[in-house]
Design a protein that fits this description.
- It is built from 6 helices and 5 strands, in the order H-H-E-H-H-E-E-H-H-E-E.
- The protein is α+β, with helices and mostly antiparallel strands and about 140 residues long.
- Strand 2 (about 60-65) and strand 3 form a beta hairpin.
Length: about 140
């Protein structure tokens, strides 16, 4: 994913209603949901929903298809996955603590950054932290 596409996707996710919409469509799966049902479940007006759907579609995070008189929206799992992968791989350079936070159900309250000397007495003052040390689970 290139930078401009990542920025468009991240900008689209930067609103509470749009995050709720993404959650809703992820749960709906491949079947997706009609626009009217999305509006009802999220309590949004048609015009407000249309604005949010457009932002998410332009960000490459959702797709739409016609089914009779309805427009059905589904999550674009590939687009969502590429956005997350961009953050993890390109921005965070696969940092072990960042990746560990992405494991389902795992929360890291305090980073476990340790001095390069392994935290032993006599280590050099101002030594760079060891960013590869395993994270502590809470």
């Amino acid at each position: 994913m290139d930078r401009s596409k990542a920025l468009a996707a991240l900008a689209a996710l930067s609103h509470g209603d749009r995050l709720d919409l993404v959650r809703l469509l992820v749960r709906a799966g491949e079947d997706g949901l009609a626009a009217g049902e999305i509006a009802r479940q999220l309590g949004l007006s048609a015009s407000r929903l249309s604005f949010h759907l457009s932002a998410l579609e332009q960000g490459g995070l959702i797709a739409s298809r016609r089914a009779a008189r309805n427009v059905i929206y589904t999550i674009d799992t590939g687009g969502l996955g590429r956005t997350i992968a961009y953050l993890l791989n390109d921005c965070c350079m696969d940092h072990p603590e960042v990746v560990a936070c992405c494991q389902h159900g795992r929360v890291i309250e305090t980073p476990s950054l340790r001095p390069a000397s392994g935290g032993q007495a006599g280590g050099k003052a101002g030594a760079a932290p060891d960013l590869t040390a395993p994270a502590r689970e809470s």
